[in-house]
Design goal:
The chain is globular and about 70 Å long. It starts with a helix and ends in a 5-residue tail after the last helix. It has 271 residues and is α/β, with parallel strands linked by helices. Strands 3-2-1-4-5-7-6 form a 7-stranded mixed sheet, with helices on both faces. Helix 8 links the parallel strand 4 and strand 5. It folds into 2 domains: 226 residues, Rossmann fold, CATH 3.40.50; 42 residues. Helices cover 43% and strands 18% of the residues. Bound molecules: S-adenosylmethionine.
């Protein structure tokens, strides 16, 4: 992708683009024409995020495609494709989280994107990345907004690496989460040319500026990566997913059960 053109367009949209603290608080971009999307299609996104994806897709080079993982009801896909009808898009979701369906998403895409522009795959993202339906094209812009366990995050990068263009942009959502940041950081350490170029954090999740944080990496293919499945990855996966994530799920389940019991006890007994 044409990284320089992308950055120049971003500077025109956000006067504080080169100052991450200022940018992280920007309420919206200069061009507000994507604002209506979120009023029509429920999304886990913001106007800023849609514009950023849209500019990235607009900077694809010939023969490159946009790939998105984690589409939900389609808001980010529609934002990315708006005004870029020639861009070819491959997208994936398995609807394992939240409440959306493949039929609903397909109907929205049929209404809001150019015919044949989006090739949607209802499947687990690892299978999708191994299938490489875009092949032999390469990915100029990759947006990952799927599951956010440490393993999900890291494998979503490891499995796409071979398909990225020699100069590609990787956009990762929900990067306020510490496990997401840790996975991205480790991956960048193992892969020469994978460079963090923007890191926006928000004060909370569902922030109207940038939702739950976002990171942009520029990938310029250079040397071969270090082994991606080595002990550094396996130790961190154990810590983040098997210990911390599982512990959090158990804690939440226990707290929920306790609340139910207390509620049942407080209810007056029927005579
Ligand atoms: C935060 S939502 C995506 C939001 C969307 N990009 C938007 O802007 O509205 C995350 C999506 O990732 C999907 N997902 C989670 N784990 C997945 C997996 N292993 N494979 C494919 N999709 C997955 C969920 O079903 C969910 O729809």
């Amino acid at each position: 992708m044409n990284f320089e053109a992308f950055v120049a367009r971003c500077r025109a949209e956000w006067p504080g683009f080169d100052d991450p603290r200022r940018l992280s608080r920007a309420p919206y971009p200069a061009d507000r024409s994507l604002a209506g999307i979120l009023a029509e299609v429920e999304g886990m996104a913001t106007e800023n995020k849609l514009r950023l994806l849209n500019l990235a897709v607009g900077a694809l080079s010939d023969g490159e495609v946009y790939v998105e993982i984690g589409c939900y009801k389609g808001a980010s896909l529609i934002g990315a494709s708006a005004g870029n009808p020639a861009a070819k898009i491959y997208a994936c979701d398995n609807f394992s989280q939240f409440r959306a369906t493949a039929d609903e998403l397909r109907a929205t895409l049929a209404r809001r994107t150019a015919p044949g522009q989006v090739s949607f795959h209802d499947m687990e993202f690892r299978d999708f990345l191994r299938l490489r339906p875009w092949h032999p094209a390469s990915i100029g812009v990759y947006f990952y907004d799927g599951g956010h366990s440490f393993a999900d995050q890291y494998e979503a990068l490891a499995l796409v690496l071979g398909s990225l263009a020699n100069d590609a942009l990787v956009i990762i959502d929900d990067t306020n989460k510490r496990n997401v940041r840790a996975a991205n950081r480790l991956f960048a350490r193992c892969v020469p040319g994978f460079e963090l170029v923007l890191d926006l954090r928000t004060a909370r999740n569902h922030s109207p500026a940038w939702w739950n944080g976002i990171q942009l990496y520029r990938f310029r293919r250079s040397g071969p990566p270090l082994p991606l499945d080595g002990p550094a990855y396996r130790c961190r996966r154990f810590l983040w997913d098997d210990v911390l994530l599982r512990g959090r799920h158990l804690y939440r389940a226990g707290r929920g059960a306790l609340k139910q019991r207390l509620k049942a006890r407080a209810r007056p007994r029927a005579r």
